[in-house]
Input
Amino acid sequence: MTTTTIVKAPSTTPAPSATAARSGGVATGTKIRVHALRYNPQEPGSVPRMQTYELEQSEGMTLFIALNEIRETQDPTLQFDFVCRAGICGSCAMMVNGRPTLACRTLTRDVGPDITLAPLPVFELIGDLSVNTGKWMRGTSERLQAWLHGDAKARDINRLEERMEPELAEQLNELDRCVECGCCVASCGTARMRPDFVGAVGMAKIARFRLDPRDKRTDDDYYELVGTDDGVFGCMSLLACHDVCPKDLPLQTQIAFLRRKMAGKGWA
Amino acid sequence: MASTSPTIAGVGLADRPRASRVPARLDLLQSFTGGVLALFMWGHMFFVSTILVSKDFMWTVTRMFEGYFIFGKPYPGIVSVIVFGILVMFVAHAFLAVRKLPINFRQWQMYRGHMKVMKHEDTTLWWVQAITGFMLFFLVTVHLYQMLMHPGLIGPYESADRVWSGRWWPLYLVMLFAVELHGGIGLYRLAVKWGWFERGDADATRSALKKAKWALTVFFLALGLATLGAYMKIGYEHADRAGERYVPASVQQGAVK
Ligand code: HEM
Ligand code: SF4
Ligand code: SF4
Ligand code: FES
Output
């Protein structure tokens, strides 16, 4: 690996200045530098390197705006993903100053003036900052059978839906907010060491169906899916997943919940 | 059951159709042994630190463990039995926890690189736990073997002579830091791993647990350093009479010829 630019240590708290204090970080109009990891695995001879782009901080600039400006005005070859630019589709996750987060929801003034960008690890690298999280997520959903396993009667659309406590509905909605961005997986030391590890997103999905009374699966069924050292027992409780999840899912609580339920099957 | 057949297990099909319950048990036992060891270490620290009160007090506590005040004479064998119990816990815990350590260069490299860019406290603390755990393999084994074989040689002079004249203090110094860091992080991890003390706000609980963890680590390190210092001082002053056993003044007077 080569590094063409010296990358400064990530600084989330840049030197304060009068205007910066008002806008909450880097002042509008100052220069910011985006240090992006460039590498194209499809191209023979491509070697991972860092490339620096300089641009001007504008009012309310997000990384989505900054990267598009770079692509339009400086370098059309830079690869990255965006769809919704509103934190809904989950496709723009990348490593910003060493931690995974959604680029569209990150204000450059909060993370600049030197911003280091890299693709999420663990997932298949498409090129530069673009990774194939979709493929991984699909594989995980299939492996964990992460869909509602209801009874046949429930499929009768003329039947009234069973009632549910509002608190429970609220809990399920919380977990359904996951956008499958992959930040939790990229932040997880366990997932980095062990490629077969289910990851927090997988455990949160199982916990979600475990909570849902409409899912008729039992703990024995869930144990078949996550009762291994690649499943919930592999989690080392580093909680980076919980700390980085851009949708603030209660991952710590849900993983502990699932662990208690699955450990309870140890002698049962 | 068909899947208990060595042939079925031998070709890796023992988990069909029912996944093995062993991983669940191993996880519980890992937590159980770690928790017991960590709590034992708290008690242990209070016993050894009695030297900070007085030599006589330390002597009394030691004899108490040897059953002196129940049977009228010391039975160091009782200490050996306790030590053996701890040794079993320790070996079991090491056996279970070693599954988590990076076991090849690729895993090592992944975790190290990850930790350096993430700068995430709990991720770094796991590394500290893994390294200190590995150190404890060697440090604790030596210490426990000594205690198993010479349970009677615990006392104000006996221990101090071992620490100073027996040159055990470097081992104890390193072991103190390793155990306190490892055990403190371990107890914190137990709480977040199983969701203990979580009342509504998980984040608030976690930050309170983290504070408590650091406070305990600092407290036990300070107590441990003071205690080790006290034994080193006694051992240093007692060096020319090393090997002499401690007998409290009250007992000397009582034992009139
Ligand atoms: C050979 C010596 C030891 C080794 C190799 C070792 C290793 C480890 C490792 C790697 C972990 C992390 C496991 C995980 O992330 O799931 C751990 C957890 C733990 N250790 Fe140790 N350890 C040793 C001795 C001790 C001792 C002497 C204590 C008592 C102070 C202790 C207390 C704990 C606790 C409370 C945990 C948390 C348990 C859990 O997460 O389930 N360990 N140990
Ligand atoms: S749990 Fe959070 S971090 Fe993980 S994929 Fe879902 S939204 Fe992203
Ligand atoms: S708690 Fe840690 S080990 Fe478990 S999934 Fe989250 S980051 Fe990974
Ligand atoms: S672009 Fe959709 S989440 Fe960022």
